[in-house]
């Protein structure tokens, strides 16, 4: 197998980059996958090499061939200047934010962010003397009015967690750029395959790699990719804070990355089919999926995104909690769980009203978030059909 240069890899298609990025079998006796390197101590041949850190690897926390293979593969995929791995998605969020904020700074945080991100802002960043203002995801150019002299960062998440709003990312980025703010984006839902963060002016792209990168619900993992502007500060903070990920989890993430393209296409196709079916049901008020024609964010999604993932939400008709429980508790193929992105389908009842401040969440009925896995769509729809019958029976009574 001919060795391919990193510059040449950048010219290939996304699926090819997923397969070959960060992979060189000739370095590992011909084995296709980079092995798992367990280790803390790295021996140096001489005192000079030890003290000058001239070796490729100097200490386990600073990286090994397994972590380097993942970082190279991710850079090949998203076109970033540098990548760090974190032990969870929330750790990736906190690492990105702390790399660009200091006491006295002001952060603009999208109101529809992942709830643990909001908790980190309110409990940790506030305690460190960093002020946070939450903004409406649909604010567009109005974000300009919220930027202050000490605003150092603007944080985006697309679509909104659970409620699935699509912000106008180019408008918000353009306003933030005029004030030299660092722009952060939680890109977990789209991955770099379906949204080009750096092509849209983002400085720090965050992914909960636990989701689609790992893809099999068997490892906690986070990733932060940086632009040239943001990379030096991210690299320094990451090293200074002592973060590292166990090699087994990195290996699982790298293995998952190789098949993410085909998995994500199947998640997208199946989710759209299930979402369209749910939109036809009388028990469902609204389907919150930007890939659907009638969704409020569809035009922006179609303009800026290349695809959709398997995650979306619905708003049911008004009903007692017992009806929602009857709908979900007896589902055969949908587990009840907080994560998503794995091969299995999941369902989660939700209510955003307690963790919104710049917007109001009052949809008029119970919310349920679905992740559509890799099962046969006909089986999933039959399962949901039976669940909605249980919901309807208790709603009427």
Explain how this protein is built.
- It catalyses: L,L-cystathionine + H2O = L-homocysteine + pyruvate + NH4(+); an S-substituted L-cysteine + H2O = a thiol + pyruvate + NH4(+).
- Keywords: Lyase, Pyridoxal phosphate.
- Pathway: Amino-acid biosynthesis; L-methionine biosynthesis via de novo pathway; L-homocysteine from L-cystathionine: step 1/1.
- The chain has 397 residues and is α/β, with parallel strands linked by helices.
- The chain has a domain at 261-396: Alpha-Beta Complex (Aspartate Aminotransferase, domain 1).
- It is 37% helix and 15% strand.
- The protein has helices spanning 6-9, 14-20, 47-52, 65-78, 89-100, 115-125, 169-178, 191-194, 231-241, 247-279, 298-304, 321-329, 377-396; strands at residues 82-86, 106-110, 131-135, 151-157, 182-186, 204-207, 222-226, 284-288, 311-316, 334-336, 345-350, 367-371.
- The longest helix is centred in the middle third of the chain and has 33 residues, at 247-279.
- It is globular and about 80 Å long.
Keywords:
397 residues, alpha/beta, Aspartate Aminotransferase, domain 1, seven-stranded mixed beta sheet, five-stranded mixed beta sheet, 13 helices, 12 strands, 15% strand, globular
Provide a brief overview of the structure.
This protein has helices spanning 6-9, 14-20, 47-52, 65-78, 89-100, 115-125, 169-178, 191-194, 231-241, 247-279, 298-304, 321-329, 377-396; strands at residues 82-86, 106-110, 131-135, 151-157, 182-186, 204-207, 222-226, 284-288, 311-316, 334-336, 345-350, 367-371.
